[in-house]
Write a structure and sequence with these properties.
Blueprint (H helix, E strand, L loop, with lengths): L2 E8 L2 H16 L3 E5 L10 H32 L18 H6 L14 H39 L25 E9 L3 H7 L13 E5 L3 E9 L3 H10 L3 E3 L5 H22 L35 H7 L5 H33 L5 E8 L5 H11 L3 H6 L23 E6 L5
Helix pairs in contact: 1-10, 2-4, 2-9, 4-7, 4-9
Length: 427
């Protein structure tokens, strides 16, 4: 499953024993895979400031999750011809999302734990806000490109009455640069082909004999040329309409046709290059943020490849990728990493608010094995930690007040700090 539960309990002897009982029961019943979730010691500040940060982190958590889901969807749209490869492009620090979460370590270099909590939260807010700003501008440009391309492509679809003719006709089909003669294009219904051949020369005076030619046809009719003197154009159009032949308004302009073809080719090329560029030199350093490393140490799994690549190292590996896809991959990683740091901060803040000072709690990451086992897993946790009810009720916060992350209601109450992490970003 791509679902995780991030919980915490006080770090005293009684509750550490409760955590051991939880591990034993969940392991024996095959309910979940559990690992310790390391969170550094932060500067606590005042309880009032923590209450304010609790609300702020709740909003930031929601925003971060929404942002990475939008970025994941953008990757799907850009990789429309290779959607099967989307998961391998949604990584965090060069590893799959599950591995990053289960082997999470706080990035001290980017988010120093010695700074006040408010400063750390402010750094995360500004980082995610900048990514969202860049995402909006880049996706807007890409969507404009797609719209322009779709509009041009629509012109080459449809029937002979509406579609563009620039990819059908050629210079040889027309009498050009004549002071007296002009070539018209006429749409003739398929059942009327014989009638057209017999009557087109007599629809008006001054029609050039044997000047008609079938250029193309669709399911409904055919496109014919006919050459006549300019002075009888209006009369010919009137007679043609009476016989259910339609003169298609078209003027052969070689420069305009060439421009339209080049525009379509350019848009197709530009759209493809947003996903993949094999011959064009790509600009280095497309990440919104400077290079950084996030240390991810495999725990109990020495065979897992070590992470810790810089953004530029990952970019160099994707040298054949287009600029938009490469930007999305690098900044999706940035946003996802920030999101998990926000989860860690929420656990810290809520644990201090619930369990009090001095700071002493243990965070644990649970990965339910099956969707059907989550109800049983919840029952086990509530049973193991039911003794925390009195502690929580006597905490500095009133349990009747909604606290982000604790998910309290009149019908549901968890005696431990609980947060949910859902990696089903494309659901």
């Amino acid at each position: 499953m791509s679902e995780f539960w991030l919980i915490s309990a006080p770090g005293d002897k009684e509750n550490l024993q409760a955590l051991e009982r939880m591990n034993a029961v969940t392991s024996k019943s095959n309910l979940s895979y559990n690992t310790k979730f390391s969170i550094p010691d932060f500067k606590v500040g005042t309880l009032d400031s923590l209450v304010g940060l609790s609300d702020e982190l709740g909003k930031l958590d929601t925003f971060a999750e929404s942002l990475i889901k939008r970025m994941a969807q953008s990757v799907v749209e850009v990789m429309e011809d290779a959607k099967g490869k989307v998961p391998e492009n949604l990584l965090a620090n060069g590893v799959d999302l599950t591995s990053f979460v289960t082997h999470f370590e706080w990035d001290m270099a980017k988010y120093p734990a010695k700074q006040p909590l408010a400063s750390v939260v402010d750094t995360l807010e500004k980082q995610l806000a900048q990514i969202e700003t860049d995402l909006k501008s880049r996706t807007a440009a890409y969507n404009t490109l797609k719209t322009n391309l779709e509009n041009l492509e629509k012109k080459s679809m449809g029937n002979l009455f509406t579609r563009t003719l620039s990819d059908i006709v050629s210079k040889d089909d027309f009498v050009l640069d004549s002071e007296y003669l002009i070539t018209l294009l006429v749409i003739v219904p398929k059942p009327s082909y014989t009638q057209w051949q017999k009557t087109y020369e007599s629809l008006s005076d001054m029609v050039v004999p044997r000047s008609t030619k079938l250029i193309t046809e669709d399911n409904e009719g055919g496109l014919f040329t006919v050459t006549l003197f300019r002075k009888v154009i209006d009369d010919f159009k009137t007679k043609a309409k009476e016989n259910k032949f339609t003169v298609r308004e078209f003027y052969y302009d070689e420069k305009e046709i060439k421009r339209e073809r080049e525009e379509l080719s350019r848009l197709l090329s530009d759209k493809k290059q947003q996903y993949q560029t094999s011959c064009v030199a790509l600009k280095k350093g497309s990440s919104t943020f400077p290079d950084h490393k996030v240390k991810v140490t495999p725990l109990g799994n020495p065979d897992r490849p070590a992470a810790g690549q810089t953004d530029r190292e990952r970019e160099s590996e994707g040298e054949g990728e287009g600029p938009l896809l490469r930007w999305l991959k690098v900044n999706f990683s940035e946003a996802f990493i920030a999101w998990i740091h926000i989860k860690a901060l929420r656990v810290f803040v809520e644990s201090v608010l619930r369990y009090g000072l001095p700071v002493n709690f243990q965070a644990v990451l649970l990965q339910p094995h099956k969707k059907s086992s989550t109800k049983r897993l919840r029952e086990v946790l509530n049973s193991v930690f039911r003794h925390l009810d009195q502690v929580a009720a006597a905490s500095v916060l009133d349990a009747s007040v909604e606290i982000p992350g604790l998910q309290l209601s009149s019908h549901d109450y968890f005696p431990y700090v609980y947060f949910h992490i859902d990696l089903g970003l494309l659901d």
